[in-house]
Design goal:
The complex is a heterodimer. By secondary structure, chain A is an alpha+beta fold. Chain A contains 16 helices and 10 strands. Helix content of chain A is 55%, strand content 16%. A 6-stranded mixed barrel of chain A has the order 2-3-8-5-7-6, surrounded by 4 helices. In chain B, the strands form 2 sheets. A 6-stranded mixed β-sheet of chain B has the order 6-7-8-3-9-10.
């Protein structure tokens, strides 16, 4: 109690110095909060964008061509002849998933899986006068697909359900529609690589925020693509899956691969470059924040050292009067912790204000990025972490000078 | 008469810069309520002796009893506790804490001891200040007082825990003759009327002349023994 009183007096006697030390911590914590709120916000945005174009798990039939076996080789094997086949060509293969309906029914039973959406995609040429623009056409059950990718929120014109009501309707990426100079209600003619042609009416436009998708993709009904490709009603090439928790995607994908023997990609593997840049941003945030806090720590260390050098006589007389080494440590360490605590609280407030301001700054307009403001998130854990750092740094910075103070030999000081 | 302080075969060496036998086989005792100046030339070891007796310096051989308690060999923490309770200090410089008022300076050792409530301590501190005619300065910052006044506050602070013994190192070294006389009177009054033992190192022979008994030292030994 007496120790606290003395600590308080020391702090109050040198308000300016106390404030400067606090501001060091304030600045460090403030920047930490701002940086982490922004960086994690960016990460979250990237992840959301990524997830809006990548399903949690994507099951498809990968082209597997095995040239080790040839008919000639089989035939001549018994005769001990070496056979070399030059320029083998793949045979006609169907990239569809066999028993797709069975697999999908099976998947819908799985408690870990939220939505399942079948997909038949093919390359297509969009005819624009004499010009043909290359793109993809996705045949989907639009309701299933909309659930997985939250298409409703990505529509810039029309609603996904239009695809159900319109005969030969098409929902087109906005970038692609712009290139083709198409609007709602316009007709577009598609040609498949095999030469089939079909006309569709534009019943919706979407923008996911990723150029390569918005510029090339359109959705039509599954039946239309099957018709376009001259395939039967059970012909699908891909299954997209949304899980209840996307953190389990990697294990689940492996499990599904083992079960159905079709290639299963989880979203993390499919977007490993985005995940890598997330990690880089995380590391950057912590490195910069820890640097700032270390600088603040040195500031506190300096100020505590200075205070203690100025207070040698006071420390000596306190010790003579019966204050123990522990009391002295308490007196000076509590000053350091006080500086840290209030510095950190001010820093959290500063960080919050800065982060809030940033979150209201409009993001430069861009057709391909669906951002209105800078992405900033507000997570209480970051503030707890900042508080923790705000106390640990001054504790370490204050401990050394305080221990030094407690070891002062009063005899040396008092004898002069 | 009971014994307040007893010293047996005290020896102390300085190791820096050279090996030096600064106190040699010191043995003496002081009774309760005695006012005893320790005099001697510079370097005779009188201050060193005082710091050993005060328990601040523990690097010695021999034994020291204060109030019949053996303080030799106790841990630093228990010595701190012991000083807080039993010894009052007065130095050549007042060593008051500049951020605190006169009253708070006096109260601090008692607050540390924690034997009484804050109100009780304040009451007691004002009483002691009044005894030394310093009560009118109670709420002033200690740094605003004159040298003589500060020394009187320092003495009040030494008295706050009702110590058995007051140890003073050149308490009048920085004071003019009027204030020196005043401090002397206070010490004599404390020892004779309050039964507090006062042991003070001094250069001031006038100061020493009127005391009950004088311990005179030469070259690390007590004269006449």
């Amino acid at each position: 109690m007496v120790d606290a009183l003395i600590a308080k007096r020391h702090l109050m006697a040198n308000k300016k110095q106390t404030l400067v030390a606090m501001l060091g911590v304030t600045f460090g914590i403030g920047m930490f909060i701002l940086m982490i709120s922004f960086m994690i916000g960016v990460n979250q945005f990237m992840e959301n964008t990524m997830l809006s174009s990548t399903p949690d798990i994507h099951i498809y039939n990968d082209i597997k061509t095995d040239y080790n076996v040839s008919i000639a080789g089989e035939y001549f094997k018994s005769k001990g002849t070496l056979v070399a086949v030059h320029h083998p060509k793949p045979k006609q293969i169907n990239l569809n998933l066999k028993n797709a309906d069975g697999i999908m029914n099976d998947l819908r039973e799985d408690p870990a899986i939220k939505f399942v959406s079948p997909l038949l995609s093919t390359q297509a040429f969009y005819n624009y006068g004499p010009v043909q623009i290359n793109g993809y056409i996705y045949g989907v059950n639009i309701l299933d697909e909309a659930k997985i990718f939250d298409l409703s929120s990505k529509m810039t014109a029309g609603v996904p359900e239009n695809l159900l009501t319109a005969d030969k309707g098409i929902i087109m990426g906005r970038g692609l529609a712009n290139k083709l100079n198409l609007g709602m209600g316009d007709m577009v003619t598609l040609t498949t690589p095999t030469g089939t042609t079909m006309s569709f009416r534009v019943v919706g436009l979407f923008a996911i925020g990723i150029g390569t998708i918005d510029d090339t993709r359109s959705y039509v009904s599954l039946a239309n693509v099957q018709q376009l490709m001259a395939k039967d009603r059970s012909y699908i090439t891909d299954i997209n899956i949304k899980l209840k928790s996307n953190k389990l995607a990697r294990e689940k994908a492996e499990e599904l691969f083992k079960k159905y023997n079709y290639k299963s990609d989880d979203w993390e593997t499919a977007n490993s470059s985005v995940m890598a840049s997330n990690i880089v941003r995380d590391v950057l945030t912590y490195v910069v924040s820890i640097t700032l806090l270390t600088v603040a720590g040195f500031g506190i260390y300096n100020i505590m050292n200075m205070t203690i050098n100025n207070k040698m006589k006071d420390i000596a007389i306190l010790k003579a009067q019966g204050f123990s080494g522990r009391d002295i440590v308490q007196i000076f360490l509590s000053q350091s912790l006080f500086i840290g605590f209030f510095g950190a609280i001010m820093g959290e407030i500063l960080g919050f204000i800065l982060a809030y301001c940033l979150s209201r700054v409009p993001f430069p307009h861009n057709d391909f990025i669906s951002l209105k403001f800078f992405p900033v998130i507000f997570n209480p854990n970051h503030y707890l972490f900042g508080m923790f750092f705000g106390l640990v740094t001054p504790f370490i910075a204050g401990l050394m000078p305080s221990l030094k103070a407690s070891k002062i030999d009063p005899v040396v000081i008092l004898r002069g | 008469m009971s014994i307040a302080l007893k010293v047996e075969n005290l020896n102390k060496y300085f190791h820096e810069p050279d090996e030096f036998h600064v106190l040699q086989d010191i043995s003496f005792s002081v009774n309760k309520g005695e006012f005893v100046p320790v005099i001697g030339k510079s370097g005779c070891g009188k201050s060193t002796l005082l710091y050993l007796l005060s328990t601040l310096d523990t690097d010695y051989t021999g034994q020291i009893f204060i109030n019949n308690t053996l303080v030799t060999g106790q841990s630093q923490n228990s010595l701190a506790q012991f000083r807080n309770e039993n010894i009052g200090f007065v130095f050549q410089f007042h060593f008051l804490l500049p951020e605190f008022t006169v009253l708070e300076n006096v109260m601090l050792p008692a607050l540390k001891l924690g034997k009484y409530s804050k109100e009780k301590i304040e009451e007691k501190a004002i009483g002691k200040l009044r005894q030394l005619q310093m009560d009118s300065f109670a709420n002033k910052l200690s740094s605003k007082l004159s040298g003589g006044q500060q020394q009187r506050v320092a003495i009040t602070r030494a008295l706050i825990n009702d110590p058995a013994i007051i140890m003073a190192d050149e308490p009048t070294g920085n004071l003019d003759s009027v204030n020196t006389g005043l401090v002397f009177d206070i010490f004599r009054d404390l020892s004779h009327n309050n039964g507090i033992t006062v042991l003070t190192v001094t250069h001031d022979l006038d100061f020493a002349k009127n005391a009950d008994r004088v311990i005179e030292m030469t070259d690390g030994r007590i004269n006449g023994k």
